[in-house]
Design brief:
Shape: globular
Radius of gyration: 26 Å
Helix content: 25-40%
Structural class: alpha+beta
Strand content: 15-25%
Largest sheet: 6 strands, mixed
């Protein structure tokens, strides 16, 4: 199809195409990539051997001491009762609720009834994320036993589906007469989105389409129910991800009704009168201001939003869906909105670890430059969603800024969410922890000094499993004549984009050293290799391909030439230790520095530096060095730096009845110390202890 024919077709659909789609890139299929990277292969094997089986036990409530999931219980119950409930037409039965956080949860009995729903209303999604992780693992490492387990689980899930395609165990077990009546809170479309993602991934990995057909039937049901047409519901998801899932289903099946529905959800969001007001008229009195629903990113139409607000995970899932729709429909205004929101996050609301979400109140973005360390939320899922969004922005326009953020989030906040043995997890990823405060200060009760075996709201562990298992899909994108290297990850690639075979073999020392070797074969016609220049790297060295045409643009080095069979490039990106300070408007970090090296952010732990980390200062003028160090069996590059421990003066006597709590300013007493900093992602693996990323600066 020519561009003119494409424009005419899309114009008839009301799509305003102005971006040039031939300039977009696409991720490589996991079947085109074999990850050989020493660092990421280890993480992927940990997920395959430990995390996926462990999480399957957790979903079936077989992990001793862990919070029950009830996820697979609900599918079993729905499958068992599906036929009789459907035939009897039983009415919705209102469950008994207790209030926990921001969601409603049925009471959890010690011995659940076989035909009852338990857990959060969105409990189904934990399986969908788990099956997605399984799919990515199978694509990289075939495992007949794991595949059999997955197939049996899919049979169980599909048995719960209704004849009309509806699939949500909360309403199947409680009665379907109230489906889609609480879009703001009850997550049916959120669960559907995860189903579409997981089902598509499993089909692409195994060729088996049973779950994909179930996903299509649920999406078909939703497409009949929602839309601009007369008589259809004008609602949209309270918790976004359906937008991403529908786009992915469209790209897998070619059925445009899925793209149309995804675009409808994006375009409908935030229009006046607010759809959610009709569902919850009583809330209007409680929230009379004219900007309701910031928490759900539904306060304004998406193209009018210029600040990232509300629940951070919902936000980045929405922004990812917006980028998907912008790319596929050529909608420049939607892409511009994505860029505006990206700048809001990266320039004003991003932690140095790649975490987002400054407040536990609503698990949300706070106001600009409000980035507290000890009460940070920085949910693991939010960092994962930021990676989703960054990759989608790279598909539209290769700019190293997107890849820099993606890299920072992956190596720091994402990996921090999982213990080194893969058997415990952080939901929240703070930048400063005092264990006593976690236990005794209610303002910090959301912070945990050690990782947990599981969560009743367990969105983060399976999310971690799926992104680690598919990490190769974030390292590269390609278009007909160009291969983009966004992350330096040891890999072997065989791609046939544009009808030509391209083979790449990359060896990488990341994140411990910046040495990279690339061998490329791309046939007898000129081909372009686009190499990201990391933002943390002030200069770099490159050897090889001297006869190629070189151009540096938007943080990428483009080398175009006829690549001889197995031609080699050698790159060196110096990983220097850097002391970084925050923007002065970040009040919490004034007078403090953070230490980074390459893509890694570092932290102090009590295990290496003693208690009372707040009494330590770091000397930025002294030379810092590196050492090989082992943390809970993991060999890492640690940093040794010079610093001081401040000593409080002897108690001199009470004044003004203060009992010595306050005293006149006196000369500081300090003792020199040798500080050890470890990568942030490994903190909390040596038992409960203090931790801090931002350190007081000496002088």
């Amino acid at each position: 199809m020519t561009r003119r024919e494409q424009d005419e077709r899309d114009s008839k659909k009301g799509w305003q195409r102005s971006m040039r789609q031939e300039e977009f890139s696409r991720p490589l299929s996991l079947k085109e990539i074999k990850v050989t990277d020493a660092f990421w292969k280890k993480e992927m094997e940990l997920v395959r051997k430990e995390v996926i089986p462990y999480q399957w036990d957790a979903l079936n409530d077989r992990v001793e001491g862990a919070a029950p999931s009830y996820c697979m219980h609900n599918f079993r119950a729905a499958g068992k009762l599906n036929r009789e409930r459907r035939e009897a037409g039983e009415n919705f039965r209102e469950p008994v609720y207790t209030y926990r956080g921001f969601e409603m949860l049925p009471e959890d009995p010690a011995h659940p009834e076989e035909d009852q729903f338990y857990g959060f209303v969105f409990q189904d999604n934990d399986f969908y994320k788990w099956i997605e992780a399984v799919a990515y693992s199978l694509a990289q490492h075939p495992d007949p036993q794991l595949e059999r387990t997955a197939d049996e689980a899919i049979d169980l899930v599909c048995a719960a589906q209704q004849e009309d395609g509806y699939l949500d165990t909360y309403y199947i077990l409680n009665g379907k007469d109230k489906i889609f009546t609480n879009l703001r809170d009850h997550h049916e479309l959120y669960c559907m989105g995860h189903l579409l993602e997981g089902a598509t991934a499993y089909y692409q990995a195994t060729g088996k389409d049973k779950l994909l057909r179930a996903a299509c039937r649920f999406a078909d049901f939703a497409a009949e129910y929602f839309g601009e047409e007369e008589g259809k519901c004008k609602g949209y998801p309270g918790h976004e991800i359906a937008e991403m899932g529908l786009v992915r289903l469209y790209e897998a099946t070619g059925d445009e009704k899925y793209l149309k529905l995804g675009r409808y959800f994006v375009d409908q969001r935030g229009k006046r009168p607010y759809y959610f007001d009709g569902e919850h008229p009583g809330d209007i009195r409680n929230q009379p201001e004219d900007m309701r629903y910031e928490y759900h990113q539904a306060h304004l139409p998406v193209r009018e939003q210029d600040e990232a607000v509300g629940h951070a995970v919902r936000a980045v899932y929405l922004y990812s869906g917006m980028a998907d729709v912008a790319r596929l429909t050529g909608d420049e205004s939607l892409h511009a909105a994505c860029e505006t929101l990206w700048n809001s996050v990266v320039n004003k609301k991003l932690y140095i670890t790649g975490g987002i979400g400054g407040t536990h109140i609503g698990e949300a973005f706070s106001f600009a430059y409000d980035l507290p360390n000890d009460t940070a939320y920085a949910e693991t899922c939010a960092a994962i969603g930021l990676v989703f969004w960054a990759r989608r922005m790279l598909e539209i326009r290769p700019d190293s800024g997107y890849a820099d953020v993606m890299e920072r989030a992956l190596y720091n906040c994402v990996l921090s969410g999982m213990a080194l043995d893969g058997k415990s997890f952080f939901y929240v990823n703070p930048l400063e922890v005092v264990p006593q405060a976690c236990r005794q200060d209610q303002r910090k009760s959301h912070v945990r000094p050690v990782r947990q075996k599981w969560f009743s709201c367990a969105c983060c562990p399976p999310n971690l499993a799926r992104i680690v298992s598919s990490v190769g899909a974030y390292a590269f994108t390609c278009r007909e004549d160009t291969l983009f290297v966004h992350l330096y990850m040891g890999s072997e690639i065989v791609s046939h984009a544009g009808g030509r075979e391209v083979r790449l073999c990359m060896e990488s020392g990341f994140p411990w050293n910046g040495n990279v070797r690339i061998r490329l074969s791309a046939g007898k016609e000129p081909y372009t290799l686009a190499l990201r220049i990391p933002g943390w790297c002030g200069s770099y060295e490159i050897k090889g391909a001297e006869d190629g045409r070189r151009e540096t643009r938007d943080g990428y080095l483009y080398i175009t030439k006829v690549w001889e069979e197995g031609e080699c490039l050698e790159l060196h990106f110096p990983m220097e230790i850097q002391f970084l300070q925050a923007d002065s408007r970040v009040r919490e970090d004034v007078g403090r520095v953070a230490v980074t090296r390459g893509p890694l952010t570092y932290c102090l732990e009590e295990a290496d530096n003693g208690a009372d980390l707040h009494m330590l200062t770091i000397d930025c003028g002294a030379k810092a060095g590196e050492e090989t160090f082992t943390v809970a069996g993991e060999q890492v590059t640690a940093i040794r730096a010079e610093g001081y421990r401040e000593e409080m003066p002897e108690k001199t006597g009470a004044r003004a009845g203060c009992g010595g709590l306050y005293r006149p300013v006196s000369e500081r007493r300090k003792a020199p110390v040798r500080l050890r900093l470890v990568p942030y992602y490994v903190w909390g693996n040596r038992g409960e202890n203090e931790m801090t990323v931002w350190i007081r600066r000496e002088g």
